[in-house]
Specification:
The chain is α/β, with parallel strands linked by helices. It has a domain of 110 residues: eRF1 domain 2 (Nucleotidyltransferase, domain 5). 34% of the residues lie in helices and 23% in strands. It has a five-stranded mixed beta sheet. The protein has a two-stranded antiparallel ribbon with strand order 4-5. Strand 1 and strand 2 form a beta hairpin. Helix 2 packs across helix 3. The C terminus is likely disordered.
């Protein structure tokens, strides 16, 4: 489905959140920046974790060896997931203010998966397009071209 005039476009990853408004129409997308935010990415796993994962003794005759009982937590991924959840919360606030009728989401697979789980039902109802691609570092014309290519309907062939 083409992106209508005044549709909200969210371009998101685990570090950036960009909101655009389509000032064009269904035939010519013209994205204008409405808001943007970037997460401080200064922390590294080693700065966030305080201890090693738990260990369990291996069974059998060699019971003196130890190995992690569970996978080590990826704190960077947790931060990115929390950032995506903040974006879902912002969309919820906007939809409850009736800020948009149509929504297009552009996000990489992992972020899109987290976002979908967190979307408010009313936000879900207004999604007209989702594009599974990392675009937060790309210029606006590239984002517009991607959305156009993803939403272009198959034209009937002439006989």
């Amino acid at each position: 489905m083409p992106i209508p005039n005044n549709a909200l476009v969210l371009v998101l990853d685990g570090r950036k959140m960009l909101f655009f408004r389509n000032q064009g129409d269904e035939n010519q997308i013209d994205l204008r920046t409405e808001a943007h935010d970037e997460r401080d990415d200064a922390h590294h796993d080693r700065d966030l974790k305080t201890d090693a994962p738990g260990t369990a003794a291996a069974g059998g005759a060699r019971g003196d060896t130890h190995r992690p009982a569970m996978e080590e937590t990826n704190f960077k991924q947790q931060e990115e997931d929390n950032w995506v959840k903040e974006a879902a919360d912002e969309l919820r606030k906007r939809v409850l203010r009736n800020d948009f009728e149509h929504l297009c989401i552009v996000a990489p697979p992992k972020a899109l998966g987290v976002l979908r789980k967190e979307l408010h039902k009313e936000v879900e109802r207004r999604v007209v397009c989702t594009v599974n691609k990392e675009m937060s570092g790309r210029p606006i014309p590239d984002i517009e071209a991607l959305i156009i290519s993803e939403t272009k309907t198959a034209e009937p062939s002439e006989v």
